[in-house]
Amino acid sequence: MNKPAKQALEPLASRDLFPTPPSFAARARINRSTWAAQRLDDAARDPLAYWEAAADALEWRTRWHQVLEWSAPRSKWFLGGTLNATESCLDRHARSWRRTKAALIWEGEPGEVRTLTYGQLHDDVCRFAGVLRALGLVSGDRAAIYLPLVPEAVVAMLACARLGVIHGVVFGGFSAEALCSRINDASCKVVITADGGARKGQVVRLKDTVDQALANGACPSVTSVVVLRRTGHEVSMTPGRDRWWHELVRDAQPVREAVAVDAEHPLFILYTSGTTGKPKGVVHSTGGYLTGVARTMRWVFDLKDEDVFWCSADVGWVTGHSYVVYGPLANGATVFLYEGAPTYPGPDRFWEMIARHRISILYTAPTAIRTFMRLGDHHPQRHDLSSLRLLGSVGEPINPEAWRWYHQAVGGGRCPVVDTWWQTETGAIMASPLPGLTAQKPGSCTKPLPGVEMDVVRQDGSRCADDEQGFLVIKRPWPSMMRTVWGDDERFRQTYWVQVKDPATGAPWYFTGDGARRDQDGYLWVIGRVDDVVNVSGHRLGTAEVESALVSHLAVAEAAVVGRPDELKGQGIVAFVTLKDGRPPSEALVEELKRQVASEIGSFARPDDIRWANALPKTRSGKIMRRLLRELATTGRVTGDTTSLEDFGAIAALRPAED
Ligand code: PRX
Predict the structure, then answer these.
(1) Same domain flag for 559 and 441
(2) From the CB of 540, is ligand 1 less than 6 Å away?
(3) Are 630 and 638 in contact (CB under 8 A)?
(4) What is the domain-level CATH number for residue 396?
(5) What pLDDT, in 10s, does the model give residues 75-103?
(6) Which contiguous run of DSSP H or E holds residue 211?
């Protein structure tokens, strides 16, 4: 891991406190009268009792006999407990007054609106589970979901869960190559997709991408492809393999009785980038995961039955799993979903939809907030945003300026802002204000939530002093923690559990990969990744993934990819490339390489900048000196110690490709 980069401290921002408005606090689920300081201490002293109470809010078939079995890095939660996620998310609501309550309100990019009540969503899920069962899927099998953000994406996920089938959702922006490798890693039997999705007025041709991914027997585990008709354009259907969603559901036998699974049964696999070229299949459990997302949904977002909750993430990312699907539905919430681009057809699409659907809680990413901020205050001001009562941020550090703009221009100064820190691996929010209780500081995710023990430590595990930068670690297991990397327990251990240990006992702590500091009030300020992961517009990418996409081009000898700060995207990607002998650099090649990355991974991974190098700067042991490259990418200059360079000339030879 890299040393956390030095960043100017912001003493002003640290003192800039935004207490929750008294009117909000008075009505909040968790406020000073409902959750006295004493109870926070209790949760810290006995986190298992805290989590046990949280698990009680779910519907279980069999109650657990033991809360936790922990032998780092292996955890088992709620041992002996059995449940089915859809019974907590659907059946119990469909049996109650919520049967006629809106579960999903969906708006397509072209403007059509569909509402599904809990009763309807339950029926659709039972029916689609019948389709999957008829296609031969049984508990423990894997199915890939590659859909636009339409209600059927939620239906498909829950239908898998109803059978104990493990879903692997792949974001619709990923390329055929990326889809193929994920399908193969998890040996998916079924792929659930659509003809296409609507994005920026265009059709994203998802089925064509699935066809490319499966071409020439590249995914031998796949026996069936289910195709939803969304855009209506012509697609090719392979006989015997591809079937239309609407035809299958017509003949399906609904699965009224959900399959009860063990609390530890995997609910889903979600691929995320790490420090190697191969993305990791993060495995989440059923009981522990649902406990974490249900509790945080209710407490962090102060969720009430009358709320209309909009988390703008795609279901292809963990935020979509936890706070579009499982967290809200486990709580019987009304969820708003929007299929398309945030500024299509105009810059005020978000605000117009918030006003029209009377959305009360908005949860989005700093990249989007910065984009809106740049577009100007007049767009939100033209719309009636008085329905909003709480705002949330996720995915990357939010700069204090964007935080203040969000608070003022969107929230009218009356809505608390919950800056939520978490990761694909943590499953649920780990650090965030409790909006009725915690005063906010712009740019800080405030404090770990009850039941979570996080800290900022030095490499040797000793605790950092106030304002000293160090590594963010989690010291105790939590129910929604990832269980393993699919098919690779050793990678799970090596990635998260060997870097930092408790200096007193030698017990491993969970290493987040993030650098942070803790201020004098105990507030956490996350600085960003300290490993070779970059965060582009809230999308997480491994530099090694982009490198391997580049070196798969015939002209490329070597590539090193680093992140550099970007005002809008958080980070941008800069690639340093050495070419094979006889291949001259050219503008055309720059474009070709950018295209190559887009086709290997997805267009969101396109490098911003490609620079040619005669050789890459390396240490004597052959390691690429990324610190130098990061500095060069950021400032254009290199300073500091270069004595361990293999080739001093390499630094001088790096120049922008555009030269
Ligand atoms: O660096 C942190 C950043 O996003 C990383 C996790 O990315 P991913 O697994 O894709 O999940 C994103 C959505 C949960 C973290 O290691 N990150 C996430 N939230 C914040 C954040 N950085 C600062 N502040 C946050 N609120």
Answers:
(1) no
(2) yes
(3) no
(4) 3.40.50.980
(5) 999 999 999 999 999 999 999 999 999 99
(6) helix 206-214
257 and 232 fall within a common domain: yes
Q: CA 386: distance to chain centroid?
A: 28
- Same domain? For 204 and 244 the reply is yes
User: CA 645, CA 617: separation in Å to the nearest integer?
Assistant: 6
Exposed / middle / buried, residue 58 (Cβ in 10 Å: 0-12, 13-18, 19+): buried
Number of independent structural domains in the chain? 3
- Answer whether residue 7 shows pLDDT above 50: no
Q: Ligand 1 pocket: which of 1, 324, 512, 535 to mutate (most atoms <8 Å of CB)? A: 535
**Nearest atom of ligand 1 to the alpha carbon of 422:** 14
Contact 162, 128 (CB under 8 A): no
**Tokens, residue 603:** 């267009």
Q: How far is the CA of 529 from the centre of ligand 1 (A)?
A: 9
Percentage of the chain beyond pLDDT 90 is 82
Residue 620: pLDDT band by 50, 70, 90 thresholds? confident
Please indicate, yes or no, if residue 215 is contained in any of the structural domains. Answer: yes
Pair (182, 260) in one structural domain: yes
* Dist. CA 269–CA 299, nearest whole Å: 26
What's 36's domain CATH number?
Answer: 3.40.50.12780
Q: How far apart are CA 51 and CA 184, in angstroms?
A: 35
Structure tokens at 362: 């908005």
Q: 């582009």: which residue's tokens? A: 536
pLDDT the model gives residue 273: 86
Sign of CA dihedral 24, 28, 34, 35: negative
C-beta of 272 in contact with ligand 1 (< 6 A)? yes
Query: How many angstroms separate the CA atoms of 417 and 456, rounded?
Result: 23
Residues 70 and 172 in one domain: yes
If you average pLDDT over residues 36-62, what whole number do you get?
92
Indicate if ligand 1 lies below 6 Å from the C-beta of 82. Answer: no
Tokens standing for 520? Answer: 């004098």
Residue 368: closest CA among 346, 387, 394? 394
Cross-strand pairs, 364: 393
Asked, for residue 456, whether it belongs to a domain, the answer is no
User: Is the confidence at residue 627, as pLDDT, over 90?
Assistant: no
Q: Is the model's pLDDT at 219 over the cut of 80?
A: yes
Judgement on whether residues 381 and 482 belong to the same structural domain of the protein:
no
Q: Is residue 378 part of a domain?
A: yes
Q: Is residue 306 part of a domain?
A: no
Separation of 453 CA from ligand 1 center, angstroms? 17
Q: Compute, in degrees rounded to 10, the torsion defined by CA atoms 413, 416, 421, 423.
A: -100
Please state, in angstroms and rounded to a whole number, the distance separating the CA atoms of residues 480 and 427.
5
The pTM of the whole model exceeds 0.70: yes
Q: In what order do the strands lie in the sheet with 142-146?
A: 242-244, 224-228, 190-194, 142-146, 166-169, 266-272, 280-285, 484-485
Q: Lowest-confidence range among 12-26, 149-163, 531-545?
A: 12-26
Are 590 and 492 within one domain? no
- Containing domain of residue 557, as a range? 532-656
Q: Whose CA is nearest to atom 12 of ligand 1?
A: 395
- Whether 507 and 599 map to the same domain: the answer is no
What are 421's strand-pairing partners? 431
Give the CATH number for residue 546.
3.30.300.30
| Among 375, 402, 419, residue at a domain's last position | 419
